[in-house]
Amino acid sequence: MRATLRASDRPLAEEFDLALVDLDGVAYRGHLPIEHAAESLGAARAAGMRLVFVTNNASREPEDVAGQLTGLDIPASPEEVMTAAQACAALLRTRLEPGARVLVVGGRGLVTAVEAQGFEVVTSADDRPDAVAQGYAPEVAWPQLAEAAYAVEAGAWHVASNLDLSLPTARGFAPGNGALVGAVVAATGVTPDSAGKPSPTMYRLAVERVGARRPLVVGDRLDTDLAGARAGSYPGLHVLTGVSSARDAVLAEPGLRPDFVGADLRALHEVHPVPVEGPDGWWECRGRAARVVDGTLELDREGQHGIDVVRAACAAAWAAVDEGTALDPDRVPELSA
Question: Is 22 annotated in the active site?
């Protein structure tokens, strides 16, 4: 079955009973609010949709995340936060028994999650750990990376909270956990297992926690949030307030494609029409249209702005590529909602 956009005749907040909401780029940006996020999430709760905030950040405690959200007028409890640290510790439990030694390279959030699973936290390879749990924290430096490498070389199981190469901050993009994990991989040649997105582990844990039957993933990154949704067979909404742009969505390979696309979190309260193929190869969505001709994405005369032209462009590009047409990225213009 092809990965393409889905239709929803009802607002998504009514169609789905749980939103698995990413943080950076969706609910906030660094320490700053994102326009329309607070009121949109509040309205989703009022409509009966439950929220769990799912983040690849493993350095912070759920209480800290909930506190930041609440301070941005998005009331949240620690039970509504699922971190990569919690997923990493849950992954460790699939092979290790309580009492096993785990060398933690990361912040307090990862230490707490590992201890909560009954493991003994150690800080040196000389303690002969059974596993290395590695997550991002600003204080991680060469000495901790070296201990991780020594332990992995000695046979410890290497588990990363996530493999994100970059980390969005208020000043721009900084090296993420994947970049730090890469240093250990370069030293050892051992590829780690990962618990964070794009693995669907966190989504599954969050769904099980609340007993949801119709979950929706909401994210800004195609390579993590939406890839994890595809991997776990969860419907995904791509909002254009973070890392991945509308043009990125148009060029997305099947495993990264969203089911829905919206300008921001107001998309939770909108119906989502599905584009339809019309004459001469034009894909149309509520009066906007796009098509692919000789590897070039063509848009209607109204230009590059509007969420419906983004939807039409996604449908046209994906259909063309899936049918074997080579789409030239240099001939795909920037789009905006």
Answer: yes
